[in-house]
C-alpha cells in the first residue's frame, strides 16, 4: 500500500470516538503500510495530557480492540503521536498548534499535507473551521477535513457550517463522514443490485411493492440525554444513516463506480425527493418516546432530559421519489431506542404475482446489516406431503473467518480519506436534500407541539409505538420484521 505523508490533527483527541474507533483504525492502516514513516498525529483537547500519556492511551485503545498485537509495531506507531492542550474556542491556541504541525511536518517529511478530523461535539465545528481559516492552519500540500455527524441541525445551520468550512476547503476536500457508509452490508447494496440479473431485473416499481429500513437500537440514551435532547431520532439517525441507505437503494444505476458517478446518480435521485406535506406527515409519520419499566427509566426520567420533553426516541415514516427505478414506491423506515433487539435491516418486499396456485407468499429480499451480516431471499416451493405452497429462505452468509476479516467502518473510511476517495462520504448537495426533508417533518411536529400533541409512548424492548403499524399506504402492507 502506498505510504501517505501527512500531519493529522484530531480535535477531540481525548474523546470516546478517538479512543474506541480512530486510534484502533489508524493502527490497522499503519500495519497495512498506508501511513508509515512520514506521518504524525496531533491529538488535541483541553485537558493537560503529555505526549507520553496520549501514547499510552493510544496503546490502550489498540489493546482493547485487538486480540493480538505486535508490540514493536504498536510502540513504533504510538511514537508518531503528539498531544497539544488546546481549547478550540481560544484563537491564540491555534498559533501553537500550527507551529507544532509545521515542526512535525519537517521532522517526518510530511510534504505540507494536513488532515483535520473534527471528533468533537458539533457545536464546535463552525468555530474550528473558522479558526483553521483565519489562523492559516492549512499548508502547502493537500488539506482535507473530516467532519463528524451531525452536520448542522437543520438546513440553515448546515448551510452556515458549510460556508465556514468552504472558506478553507473545497468540496472535494471535505469528508462528511457517515460511518454507515463504511459498513460491509451497506457497501454490498450496489453489487447486490447491479451484478445479479435475478435481482437487477426486478429492481423497479413494477416488481417492488415497498422497501422497509429498520435501524433498531436496544440501548436507551444512557448518559447522553443532554445531547439527545438537542437531536432526537429524526436528526440523529434519519437525516444521515437512513437517508444514505435509502439513496443507495433507490438511485439510478451509476455510469461508473467512481466517486463522481456515484454522487451524480445520488443527486439525480435526490432532485426528485418528494417533500411530504402536512397531511402526508400526519398519515405516514409517527414519533415516539420510550416508557420506563421496573428496571429502567422512562425517557422523561433520564438524566439531563426535560420532564416535559417532546424529543422523539423513535420515528417511523415514509420516503418517496418521483423518479428513478423505484419512482413512487413507498420506502418505509423506522428507528428507535430501547427496541426489542439491536438490529439493522432492510426488507425489500416484492409484489404478489397472480399464479395457478392461488395464494402464495410475497417474496422478500432481506439485507441484515448488524449485528449479523447476511442477505436472504424468500422463495416459494411446494409443500412436501400436502398440497399448497411453502416459503423457504435462500441465504448468503459470511463464515466466521470472513466476519473476522471485515474491517470496521471507520478503518475503511479513514483509508478513503487518506487516498482521497470521497465515494462513501456525503456530498453537500445530498445533505441539502436530506435537511429539506427533515425540516419539513420537524416543522410539522413543532406545530403539533403547539397544539399540545405529544410523541406516542411505547413500552421498552418492543418494536416501538403501535401507531407505527398504521403508516402504510395500503391495508395490505405491514412490517416484515416484527
Ligand atoms: N463516540 C462515538 O461512538 C461516536 C460515533 C459516531 C459519531 N460520533 C461523533 O463524534 C464526535 C465526538 O464524539 P465523542 O463521543 O468522542 O465525544 P466526547 O467523548 O464527549 O469527546 C469530546 C472531546 O472534545 C474535547 N473538548 C470538549 N470541549 C473542548 C474545547 N472547548 N476545546 C477543545 N477540546 C474540547 C474533549 O476533551 P476535553 O474535555 O479534555 O477538552 C473530548 O476530547 C461527535 O460529533 C459525535 O456525534 C461519535
Question: Which SSEs are present, and which pair or pack?
Answer:
Elements lengths: L5 E6 L4 H16 L7 E7 L5 H15 L5 H8 L2 E5 L5 H18 L5 E5 L6 H10 L8 E5 L7 H12 L7 E3 L7 H4 L1 H7 L1 H4 L7 E9 L8 H5 L2 H19 L8 H12 L7 H7 L1 E5 L23 E6 L11 E6 L6 E8 L13 E7 L3 E9 L6 E9 L2 H6 L3 H10 L9 H23 L5 E3 L24
Parallel strand pairs: 1-2, 1-4, 2-3, 4-5, 5-6, 7-10, 8-15
Antiparallel strand pairs: 7-11, 8-9, 9-10, 11-12, 12-13, 13-14
Helix pairs in contact: 1-2, 1-15, 5-6, 6-16, 11-16, 12-16
The structure holds NADP nicotinamide-adenine-dinucleotide phosphate.
NADP nicotinamide-adenine-dinucleotide phosphate binds next to helix 1.
Q: Briefly, what is this?
A:
With 482 residues, the chain is of the alpha/beta class. Helices cover 37% and strands 19% of the residues.
Architecture overview:
This protein is of the alpha/beta class and 482 residues long. It folds into two domains: 6-148, 3-Layer(aba) Sandwich (Rossmann fold); 181-408 and 427-470, Dihydrodipicolinate Reductase, domain 2, CATH 3.30.360.10. Helix content is 37%, strand content 19%. It has 16 helices and 15 strands. It has helices spanning 16-31, 51-65, 71-78, 91-108, 125-134, 155-166, 184-187, 189-195, 197-200, 225-229, 232-250, 259-270, 278-284, 400-405, 409-418, 428-450; strands at residues 6-11, 39-45, 81-85, 114-118, 143-147, 174-176, 208-216, 286-290, 314-319, 331-336, 343-350, 364-370, 374-382, 389-397, 456-458. It has a nine-stranded mixed beta sheet. A six-stranded parallel beta sheet has the order 3-2-1-4-5-6. Helix 1 crosses helix 15. It is globular, with a radius of gyration of 24 Å. The structure holds NADP nicotinamide-adenine-dinucleotide phosphate (NAP). NADP nicotinamide-adenine-dinucleotide phosphate is lined by residues 12-17, 20, 45-47, 86-89, 119-122, 148-149, 179.
Amino acid at each position: 500500500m502506498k505510504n501517505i505523508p501527512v500531519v493529522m490533527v484530531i480535535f477531540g483527541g481525548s474523546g470516546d470516538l478517538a479512543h474506541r474507533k480512530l486510534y484502533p483504525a489508524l493502527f490497522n492502516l499503519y500495519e497495512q503500510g498506508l501511513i508509515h514513516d512520514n506521518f504524525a498525529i496531533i491529538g488535541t483537547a483541553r485537558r493537560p495530557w503529555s505526549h507520553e500519556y496520549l501514547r499510552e492511551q493510544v496503546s490502550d485503545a489498540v489493546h482493547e480492540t485487538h486480540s493480538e498485537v505486535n508490540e514493536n509495531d504498536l510502540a513504533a506507531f504510538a511514537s508518531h503521536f503528539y498531544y497539544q492542550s488546546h481549547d478550540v474556542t481560544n484563537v491564540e491556541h491555534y498559533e501553537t498548534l500550527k507551529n507544532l504541525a509545521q515542526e512535525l511536518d519537517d521532522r517526518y517529511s510530511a510534504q505540507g499535507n494536513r488532515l483535520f478530523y473534527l471528533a468533537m461535539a458539533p457545536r464546535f465545528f463552525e468555530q474550528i473551521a473558522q479558526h483553521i481559516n483565519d489562523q492559516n492552519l492549512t499548508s502547502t500540500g493537500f488539506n482535507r477535513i473530516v467532519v463528524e455527524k451531525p452536520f448542522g441541525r437543520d438546513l440553515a445551520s448546515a448551510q452556515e457550517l458549510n460556508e465556514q468550512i468552504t472558506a478553507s476547503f473545497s468540496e472535494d476536500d471535505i469528508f462528511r463522514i457517515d460511518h454507515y457508509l463504511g459498513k460491509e452490508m451497506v457497501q454490498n447494496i450496489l453489487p447486490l443490485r447491479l451484478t445479479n440479473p435475478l435481482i437487477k431485473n426486478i429492481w423497479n416499481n413494477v416488481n417492488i411493492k415497498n422497501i422497509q429500513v429498520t435501524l433498531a437500537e436496544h440501548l436507551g440514551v444512557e448518559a447522553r440525554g443532554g445531547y439527545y435532547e438537542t437531536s432526537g431520532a429524526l436528526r440523529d439517525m434519519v437525516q444521515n444513516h437512513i437517508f444514505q441507505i435509502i439513496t443507495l437503494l433507490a438511485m439510478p444505476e451509476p455510469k461508473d463506480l467512481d466517486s463522481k458517478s456515484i454522487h451524480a446518480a445520488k443527486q439525480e435521485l435526490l432532485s426528485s425527493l418528494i417533500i411530504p406535506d402536512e397531511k402526508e406527515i400526519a398519515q405516514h409519520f409517527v414519533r415516539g418516546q420510550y416508557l420506563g419499566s421496573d428496571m429502567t427509566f422512562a425517557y422523561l426520567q433520564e438524566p439531563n432530559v426535560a420532564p416535559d420533553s417532546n424529543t422523539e426516541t423513535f420515528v417511523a415514516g415514509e420516503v418517496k421519489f418521483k423518479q428513478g427505478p423505484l419512482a413512487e414506491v413507498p420506502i418505509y423506515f423506522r428507528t428507535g431506542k430501547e427496541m426489542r433487539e439491536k438490529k439493522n435491516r432492510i426488507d425489500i418486499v416484492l409484489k404478489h404475482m397472480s399464479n395457478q396456485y392461488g395464494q402464495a407468499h410475497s417474496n422478500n429480499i432481506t439485507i441484515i446489516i448488524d449485528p449479523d451480516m447476511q442477505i436472504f431471499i424468500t422463495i416459494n416451493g411446494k409443500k412436501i406431503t400436502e398440497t399448497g405452497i411453502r416459503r423457504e429462505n435462500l441465504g448468503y452468509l459470511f463464515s466466521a473467518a470472513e466476519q473476522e476479516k471485515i474491517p470496521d467502518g471507520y478503518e475503511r473510511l479513514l483509508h478513503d480519506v487518506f487516498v482521497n476517495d470521497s465515494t462513501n462520504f456525503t456530498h453537500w448537495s445530498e445533505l441539502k436534500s436530506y435537511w429539506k426533508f427533515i425540516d419539513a417533518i420537524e416543522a410539522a411536529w413543532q406545530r403539533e407541539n403547539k397544539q399540545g400533541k405529544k410523541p406516542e409512548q411505547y413500552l421498552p424492548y418492543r418494536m416501538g409505538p403501535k401507531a407505527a403499524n398504521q403508516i402504510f399506504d395500503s391495508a395490505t402492507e405491514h412490517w416484515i420484521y416484527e
